[in-house]
Specification:
Blueprint: H1 10-14, H2 16-40, H3 48-69, H4 71-79, H5 82-85, H6 88-119, H7 125-130, H8 134-144, H9 147-164, H10 178-198, H11 210-215, H12 219-228, H13 234-237, H14 243-254, E1 259-261, E2 271-273, E3 283-289, H15 308-313, E4 318-324, H16 330-339, H17 361-366, E5 371-376, H18 385-390, E6 395-397, E7 411-412, E8 415-416, H19 418-434, E9 439-444, H20 466-485, E10 493-499, E11 517-523, E12 531-533, E13 537-538, H21 542-549, E14 554-556, E15 581-585, E16 588-593, E17 597-603, E18 610-612, H22 618-636
Parallel strand pairs: 3-9, 3-10, 4-12, 4-13, 5-6, 5-9
Antiparallel strand pairs: 1-2, 2-14, 4-11, 7-8, 10-11, 15-16, 16-17, 17-18
Helix pairs in contact: 2-3, 2-6, 4-10, 6-9, 14-22, 19-20
Amino acid sequence: MATAYQPNSPLRQRFRPLLWLAVCYVLIGALTRIALLFMSGSGVPHNPLYWAYAFGVGLSYDLIAFIYLAWPLMLYLWLVPQRIYVSRLGQWLLYVGGAVLLFGLLFVAASELVFWGEFGTRFNFIAVDYLVYTTEVIGNIRESYPLGTWISLLALATLVVVWLSRRGLAARDGGTTFLQRSKVVLVWLLITVVTGVAIKGTFKDRTDNAYVNELSGNGVYEFFAAFRSSHLDYSRFYRTLPDDQAFTRLRELVKTPEATYVSNDPQDITREIRHEGPEKHLNVVLISVESFSADFMKEFGDKRNITPNLDALIDKSMFFDNLYANGTRTVRGLEALSLSVPPTPGDSIVKAHNNENLFSAANVFNDRGYQSDFVYGGYGYFDNMNYFFGHNGYRAVDRNDIAKGETIHHENVWGVADEDLYTLALKQMDEAQAQGKPFFLHIMTTSNHRPFTVPANRVPQKDGTREAAVAYTDWSIADFLKRAQGKPYFDNTIFVITADHCASSAGRTSVPINRYHIPLWIYSPKNIPPQRVSRQMSQIDIIPTVLGLLNFSYRSRFFGADIFQLEPGRERAFPATYEKLGYLHGDVLTVLEPQRKLEQVKPNFENGDAVPHTPIDQAQVDDATAYYQAAAYLFKHGKMVKRPDDSKPVQAASPSPEASPPGQ
């Protein structure tokens, strides 16, 4: 083989286009990395060591990705006979094929810039997830960016590069045989297999700055790595305890004073929740607002005055100012708010197989004669929402339920404007009222999402901007509450307003805690006295807390707790990505990672930075492990399902001389 690769050898001539593609790809990778570095701004300190790491390790991943990306060209160079290859037709096939590959690489690079601008990372599980929903994703891109102009510019750049570097695509072959070419392909295949098995995307994560680690990667490589890890089995990839220890610990962690276990089965967390006195069968309207970060609000330091109505609502509500979301995707928020469970690695339960008939918030309400609806302004097949809610106690209501001829003030690829969504919700509330039923509505908004287009003449901010979308979110909630005040059921309704997740997930740490801070209002002038609650709280605690305010006595398998029953010092939250599982307790954040890795830090709650926590708090590590391991185990083994006994009435607790819970 050594003689085969002399400068003018036939094999070297034959496979020279591979060198052309490699040079193009390495240059594209470097330019992309430079652009992303600038987009990171202050996220990457001006430290030459960081830059050297990002570009040095990044080059290695670019070359590894090239091994995979070069296969279409490799197959052409291998299979096409010499006579056709060196002909005019063969030369033009090489030009056209090279142009197609180059355009594809440029398009991927441009897509990475867009993705980074939205999420602050290379392609990851979110990109994989979005491939399933091409209508919404492509529509979102078309409505958000000048796609035609960009494609034209990329095509022009492709033609210019191919023309200027056409000698690198010269179809030359001084007489190779199929067997000779096959040896080259065999070596390439061997390299492909070895790198695929031996190299992992996590090898690059060696610095203390998440942006630098992301810059060190390769978008294409990260995409396929995320694809392979979309179904992470907790017990296979994460730190574990013996099952009996994990469940023993979990039963201690989820036990609260008003709860009693119904059995001694160590893997059964079913508790009877008992409150004193009669239940309050008030209507409940839960609004999960798309991408609503706490720091959009003046209350938390924003100077733009884009949430005047929600800021004003604080003094009229029970307001929680220290709440943390489960994740960075809508499905994680929906999972937390409907099932009250920590996030499982990989796919959300909302999208997982065998996610039917689970113990949900709707089950508790339905057992009391409520009409439980999930109301969405888009098409609920997206993210499997209609299927999940429709099979877990809710009636799924979406864009299809808006009749032709009904007023639609605005819509984009994600759905109708929030004000039209609230009109649809009011219709469901009116119908339940007419039937004499109390109602539980979970409303999921869409307007605060790129392309950020909103109805005209609602807010002064420029249409198509995040500021306009947030301001419109604020306006539409105020308008909804105003319209609801005119309804006969308003005085008997509790409005719970929170977010599914924050608007951005990017930060310099793997789990930047400031990117999980969301607000929560519980508003009901006739039933809930205004107050400020500053205890640390998880998104999974929202439903148990609301049920506590309603004085419900019921059977529960929720992992969350009524914050007013949880003893001080036991607060915790579960901020996570699709593979990094966070456990926040006090001022310490424990993060469980694949390959059974672990990090424990003291986070800065203002900017998301963190410093290592030493020594490791092993008790907190074991608590985090117990929560996540048990949640994954119970779902995997079908033990989160609703059982017939769950509907049995639970006797209220005996009166005690202690003060009534908040809100009574």
